[in-house]
Each structure stands twice: as structure tokens, then as C-alpha cells.
Specification:
This protein has ten helices and 15 strands. It is elongated and about 70 Å long. The protein is about 20% helix and about 25% strand. It has about 400 residues and is an alpha+beta fold. The strands form three sheets. The protein has an eight-stranded mixed beta sheet with strand order 5-4-3-6-2-1-9-10, sandwiched between helices.
């Protein structure tokens, strides 16, 4: 996400699986602004974020924990290479390293070089370099410098994640068989949650974005501004609202909002893909969230997609969901009513009436029905595995 953010403004993000010194690694490389050693230190610190809006471009990241939690969910070890035109800096965040030291606190070795590849003098520069070459997969300064050559241009960042998470039977949690994609296998055990993880727990369908990184990246941003290249092939971005048929615009304006929020409703080209696409600061938080009649058995509301940017709601730290607040519940209830109105307008009153719609039972400030509450329980999606929120 931060490759997209205004302080970085990367034009391209490259995502790949590479063999680095005999080790299977996930790599994320961008051509953004890069970081100074000080910014890299802040990036590797917990809970630090100083992002601000620039020329109307609102940053996605604002918690300051995304890189740490996301990278450590993907693998046990991560090393960051970043250059800003003046410095070339390296940061090492590693569970294996901490375990080897028997450390009780988080230690992140950081070193910086100038553009002539001369180590910048600091009190802990040489010891940090020694620790990185001893405990990482890069065993010399030369091997480290080679990674900077893989960052296109004078500025940018490259993140290498290794010791990728595996299941109890030793399989990677990702399927790399498709040479142009990363996919979640059909059946994966989420050992941390202690439960079965099979893509996403949907009732009767599973959109490709639930298990395909390529499909997920194609709809990740409401208005794409950055090119994503996954395993050497460009991701074809899709503006969901412009792909719909028979579109109508509506406005959501509760009393607690100073201005109304636009909603676009329409019929999906793929009728089994339906629900609300909920974005925050241009970034997808919840995909195909069913509301109103879509929560009940039957065909009412099937095929209808709504698109809304919910900057007035607060996303959770992993950007997989929104905080379960009264405002969030009211929003889902209102969206259910508005989707019902759209369905009635397009399909006629014979198929559904608002008087028997499951969406109108609660008032906008009341608790939602049990069916709605059950439907909002946390469900694993591709974002759970791919929280790339600190790529710069």
C-alpha cells in the first residue's frame, strides 16, 4: 500500500517468487522515492507513522504496523533494501535472527552506504553489517549490493521475505504452480487460528479474488494509479463501477456525516459475483459484502454490486475489515435498503417488496438482525496472507 502512498508515489510495483542463494523468497520491488536511513528506522519501528495527504492524495497506511505484521505473516525473515539517490540502506527484521540471539526484545540491524558503496559511519554500523551477513541469506557485502541493482532506477525499495510460512505437512501456504500468479491452495490449515482455511467462507461461490493475488490486485484500488507486475506479467486493473451494467447512483447521508457519500449500484457481468465493494482511501477493504436481501436464501439481489468509498469508517489494522462500530452497522443496514430499492427499480415489485425485505427491520441506529451480524464475522481472505502495506 505504501508504494501507492503520496510520500512514495511509485509508478510500478514488482511482485515475484525468486530463488535467492538457494532459498525460495517472496520479493517486492518498487521504483518509488526510497527511504533515508532515518525513515527506514521508523519503518521498522512499531506504531510510527507520519504520513499526510498531499495534493488530495490520501495515504492508505496510517497505523505504522503494516510491514511488521504483514511480512512476519508471510515468512519468518525479511530484509529491506532501499535507496533514495543519496543513501543505500539495509534493514533486517528476522525471527530467526532473534531466536539465534535469544533476544527478549526486537532488534533490527540497519546499515547505510553512500552511492560509492562505502559504509556510512555510525556507532552500530559495522556490528549491524556483521550480523546481517552472518544471520541472513546474504553472506557478504557484495551479495547485499547486488540486490540494489535489482531496484530499477536511482530510487526505490526492494523487500525480500524468506523462510516462507508452511503448513504442518511442509507445503508452502501459497501455490506457485501458476507461473503468473500466487494462489491460496484449495485447502489450507490456518495453524494460528486452529481452524480450516479454504479460501473464504462464502455460502455458494468463491470469487477469484479470494484465492488469486492477480485477481485481488486487479480490484485493489478504486482508481488505480500504480502499475503492478506480478511474476513478470502486468496486472490488468479493473474499475469495478465502470464494469457494471444498468448502473444507478445513490447517496448515503446519515445524520452523523457532514456530507453525503456516493454509491454506485449495477449488475455484475459475472452474476455469481455480487455484494458491496467497500473501499477506504481508494483501497479495497471488503469485497462482495452481502447486504439486505442478499443475506437470505433466494434470488433477490443476486448479481447486484454496490461500490462505495467508506472513508468515514475505521479499517482494522490488517485492512481486512472495518471496526465493528455502530456507524459500520448502520452503514450496512442502509446499504441493504438502498440495494433493495435498486433491485425493485430494475426487477419490479413482483420479486421483492421493502415490507418483507430483511434489510428494513432495524432502524439506522439499531442493532442489526442476527443473520446480518453472523454474516459479518471475520472471514479469511487473500489480504490475510498479503498485507503488503509497507512496500516503499
Amino acid at each position: 500500500d505504501n508504494a501507492y502512498d503520496p510520500d512514495v508515489a511509485a509508478r510500478q510495483l514488482f511482485i515475484d517468487m525468486e530463488d535467492v542463494n538457494g532459498t525460495q523468497c517472496l520479493t517486492f520491488t518498487d521504483n518509488g522515492a526510497g527511504m533515508t536511513p532515518e525513515k527506514l528506522h521508523k519503518m521498522l519501528s512499531f506504531g510510527f507513522c507520519e504520513k499526510v495527504e498531499i495534493n488530495g492524495h490520501k495515504p492508505v497506511g496510517h497505523y505504522g504496523n503494516g510491514f511488521k505484521s504483514g511480512s512476519m505473516r508471510l515468512g519468518k525473515d525479511a530484509i529491506v533494501f532501499t535507496k533514495n539517490g543519496k543513501f543505500m540502506s539495509i534493514g533486517f527484521l528476522s525471527q530467526t535472527y532473534l531466536a539465534s540471539l535469544g533476544a527478549e526484545t526486537v532488534i533490527t540491524p540497519i546499515v547505510a552506504f553512500d552511492t560509492a558503496e562505502i559504509l556510512v559511519h555510525t556507532d552500530d554500523g559495522k556490528p549491524s553489517l556483521q550480523h546481517i551477513t552472518k544471520y541472513s541469506i546474504f553472506k557478504s557485502k557484495q551479495e547485499l549490493m547486488e540486490q540494489f541493482g535489482k531496484v530499477p532506477g536511482r530510487k526505490g525499495t526492494r523487500i525480500v521475505i524468506y523462510n516462507i510460512r508452511r503448513t504442518k505437512d511442509g507445503r508452502p501456504e501459497f501455490d506457485f504452480i501458476d507461473e503468473t500468479d500466487f494462489k491460496i491452495p484449495d485447502d489450507i490449515i490456518d495453524e494460528q487460528a486452529g481452524k480450516k482455511f479454504r479460501r473464504q467462507d462464502r455460502q455458494d461461490y468463491s470469487p477469484e479474488c479470494d484465492y488469486s493475488l492477480r485477481a485481488y490486485c486487479s480490484i485493489l484500488y478504486l482508481n488505480p494509479k500504480m502499475q503492478i507486475i506480478l511474476r513478470g506479467k502486468k496486472v490488468k486493473t479493473q474499475k469495478i463501477a465502470k464494469s457494471l451494467n444498468n448502473t444507478e447512483r445513490d447517496v448515503y447521508k446519515p445524520q452523523w456525516l457532514p456530507r453525503g457519500v456516493k454509491i454506485t449500484f449495477g449488475f455484475s457481468p459475472q452474476k455469481n459475483h455480487y455484494g458491496i465493494m467497500m473501499y477506504h482511501r481508494n483501497r479495497l477493504i471488503k469485497a462482495y459484502e452481502r447486504v439486505g436481501p442478499q443475506l437470505k436464501p433466494g434470488r433477490q439481489g443476486v448479481g447486484v454490486i454496490g461500490v462505495i468509498q467508506c472513508d468515514f469508517l475505521q479499517p482494522t489494522h490488517n485492512k481486512q475489515d472495518f471496526d465493528y462500530t455502530k456507524e459500520y452497522r448502520s452503514t450496512l443496514s442502509a446499504l441493504g435498503l438502498k440495494l433493495t430499492d435498486y433491485w425493485l427499480q430494475k426487477k419490479g415489485h413482483t420479486s421483492l417488496t421493502r415490507s418483507n425485505s430483511p434489510a428494513i427491520a432495524p432502524g439506522p441506529e439499531e442493532e442489526e438482525p442476527a443473520a446480518l451480524k453472523a454474516a459479518q464475522q471475520a472471514r479469511p481472505t487473500f489480504i490475510r496472507y498479503c498485507s503488503y502495506s509497507k512496500v516503499r
